[in-house]
Design a protein that fits this description.
two-stranded antiparallel ribbon, 1 helix, 5% strand
């Protein structure tokens, strides 16, 4: 019985530590500073088929998770990453 109690306790401790670690990683990512448009080589026009509203970092209606300032839906930058299909 004592061994079962210790196993359950260890499992709960592991779950708690995992949750705390995940929360810290999320918070660190949320506080990551954005870079300037010039650092990202941003342009208001697409580059071929690549454009902001098709990028994983684009946040409608006109912002980006990585680049500061307003972003054109049809813009492009060097951080472009296609949305998963």
């Amino acid at each position: 019985m004592k061994d079962r109690f210790l196993s359950e306790r260890r499992a709960l401790l592991g779950v708690g530590l995992a949750a705390a670690g995940g929360a810290l990683c999320y918070r660190a990512a949320a506080q990551q500073p954005k870079i300037s448009k010039s650092q990202a080589s941003y342009q208001d026009t697409p580059k071929g088929e690549q454009q902001c509203d098709r990028c994983a970092h684009f946040m409608a209606p006109d912002s980006c998770k990585l680049v500061e300032g307003k972003i054109s839906r049809s813009g492009w930058c060097s951080l472009y990453s296609a949305k998963p299909k």
